[in-house]
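Researcher: I need the complex structure. Ligand is dihydropyrimidine-2,4(1H,3H)-dione. Inputs:
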Amino acid sequence: MATTLISGGTVVTATGRSEADVLVDGEKIVGVLTPGSVLLGSDLSRAVDTVIDAKGKYVIPGGVDAHTHMELPFGGTAASDTFETGTRAAAWGGTTTIIDFAVQTYGERVMDGLAAWHDKARGNCAIDYAFHQIIGDVNADSLQAMDGLLDEGISSYKLFMAYPGVFYSDDAQILRAMQKSAEHGLMTMMHAENGPAIDVLVEQLLAKGKTDPYYHGVARAWQMEEEATHRAIMLANLTGAPLYVVHVSAKQAVEQLAAARDVGQNVFGETCPQYLYLSLEEQLGGASDEWGAFEGAKWVCSTPLRSKAEGHQAHMWQSLRTNDIQMVSTDHCPFCMKGQKDLGLSDFSKIPNGIGSVEHRMDLLYQGVVDGQISLERWVEITSTTPARMFGLYGRKGVIAPGADADIVVYDPNGHTSIGLPVDGNGKSHHMNMDYSAWEGFEIDGHVDTVLSRGKVVVHDNQYLGAKGDGRFVKRGLSQYLI
Ligand code: DUC
Ligand code: ZN
Ligand code: ZN
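Model: Output:
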């Protein structure tokens, strides 16, 4: 087994930082050697196969992105990143595990949907991967299938209060699924928006000729998110099901979660980089490039971007500091402008929903450290440690400690990352399979230098050294936050 020493860096975990060398043997971390440890000072660097110099750099556990949608069929097309391209881009950005969503929709069987997702991912991933299960059709058969999810290594499933006719569950279906999940300790992940009410607003806006992307955000008003979040919390309260609300963007929804947590309910919330940095008026209102007002389609996602004037973004950063929101995932769901987003040129409701960010999450959140929004330790906690704990991966993932998988990022706080358009060759400024970037022009005061995935160096000095098929499916256990 090859050994690697990551030498001279500052190891940062969710609970602190220390000067330490990290010793890797094969796929595992076998030692974290602080100056007092016996091994440090013995000439270990001569005994190992590879030494990575991390002087002046942070050594952190690889990112865990608990919300991605590779190849998701959506809006008459499919998310443009395959498992191959999307996980490679993730590796470039210091994410070493993704949890993607296997899909069951109307008329399909849950285990068939799961098998189809294994077929898409198997042999194609650059980094390790796990699955949540979308249950888009809650019925007697799918409820029974929930009994077998844990054996498959799936300890969480997602329901949608939005998208009638696609993935939508009504309250009766949600109640039944939550009752079942409470039996097994499965985490209910909720897309909390009132879909039927949104559809009425969409119809009314279109009838008035309001067809631009901006109106996507108008139709999906914060009241729709707050109301659905409250309803999900109440149904979880009644059934005793643990609840995790995905892609929270409205400050009012955060307040619902915080109030429930204050009275002891086991509810959690995730936000995404787009809800920290981007806004309805600045992005969806733009008309600056070849697309005119349709440029806003680049940022059409659900939940939508929120108004900066209403203070949602500042509130979201605050919620990360106070732990009212526990972690940050991407909801990575990329579509190209040409041939995909442009399906909605004359009708915003036909724009496939989604933003691609899997490559940028670690950098964008590190910029939050530089800007004084969160601490260095909190950065590691919300991007790696809590996602691993929340979804039953902790111990193997989310931590730098002996026995953990050697998923490690060497991050240079003196480096720089410019996010721009995808271009061919060395100048490529992102690696996702998209013809634009939702993050064009963002400058990050830091840089992902080296990435190890289970002990193998997959990114180093701006070179990709990994291969398709390096990544393995990881079975997950129950959430560590169950009570
Ligand atoms: N939201 C998105 O933006 N895309 C895919 C599905 C979702 O819920
Ligand atoms: Zn969703
Ligand atoms: Zn999603």
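Model: Summary of the prediction. The pocket of zinc ion (ligand 3) is lined by residues 67, 69, 246, 331 (CB under 6 Å).
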